[in-house]
Design goal:
Keywords: DNA-binding, Transcription, Transcription regulation. This protein has 2 domains: 63 residues, Arc Repressor Mutant, subunit A; 145 residues, Four Helix Bundle (Hemerythrin (Met), subunit A) (Up-down Bundle), CATH 1.20.120. Helix content is 74%, strand content 4%. The chain is built from 10 helices and 3 strands, in the order αβααββααααααα.
């Protein structure tokens, strides 16, 4: 399908939010976006409404649109429920995936692997996000998919430091994430629900400390979000 100015605006805003090119709570200028993409105000507002429905932006009456914020409440809720939702999605994916979706997952993993070898942080963020989006599509559950989509937005934003390794340990952990993706593909192919769920929690634990690195500089009590609810859920599920 050919790209249109409207689809370009939609994809660009999603990408900029996921990769932190647009900061949380940043205002979106309807007029400048209309001019830049050669669109009238109406299609720009249509895109805003679509992105708001998917959890990327917040539309405030008489105050315009802004990138969805991250605050104490949203971060606490994220760490509280993310492992549970990822595990449920994993089980449903094993039960319901279609061969074409598994093929799509494999192709996405190859792009993710290539990006990791080049240390292309922006590509890794997007391909990792797509990898987990496909899990949601595999689940075939209209209740779980929107929840997963919302989680993935903040997972990408909170965990963006993971894809910018600054030392050998971070590079090792990044390679382990690549290996986990291969494990997910193998477990899906074997229809092994328990193996997928075990990997979900290993994968979550891997990125958890990197998320804390992002949170702590913001003056938040990282242990309340990372060492508390998430760890409790991991322990209950192990």
């Amino acid at each position: 399908m050919a790209k249109t100015p409207k689809s370009n605006l939609y994809e660009d805003l999603k990408r900029q939010i996921l990769t932190m090119e647009l900061d949380p709570d940043a205002d979106l200028d309807e007029a400048s976006l209309s001019e830049r993409y050669g669109l009238s105000r109406t299609p720009v507002r249509d895109i805003f409404r679509r992105l708001a429905g998917e959890g990327y932006i917040d539309i405030r009456e008489n105050r315009g649109a802004r990138v969805i914020p991250m605050n104490h409440s949203t971060l606490r809720n994220f760490f509280l429920v993310a492992p549970m939702i990822y595990a449920a999605i994993g089980r449903l994916a094993v039960q319901n995936f279609k061969p074409a979706q598994l093929s799509d997952l494999k192709q996405t993993q190859e792009r993710f692997r290539a990006a990791s070898q080049k240390t292309d942080a922006l590509a890794m963020v997007l391909e990792n996000n797509r990898f987990h989006e496909i899990f949601g599509e595999m689940s075939g559950n209209v209740y779980m998919q929107p929840s997963l989509g919302r989680l993935l937005i903040d997972h990408a934003r909170i965990g963006h430091t993971f894809f910018r390794p600054r030392n050998e340990d971070m590079r090792r952990r990044l390679q382990l994430a690549v290996d986990h993706h291969d494990g997910f593909i193998a477990a899906l192919g074997a229809h092994d629900e328990d193996a997928v769920v075990d990997l979900v929690f290993e994968h979550w634990e891997l990125s958890r400390e990197n998320m804390e690195m992002f949170i702590a500089p913001q003056g938040l009590k990282a242990d309340a979000f990372v060492g508390g609810p998430a760890t409790h859920i991991l322990e209950k599920s192990s």
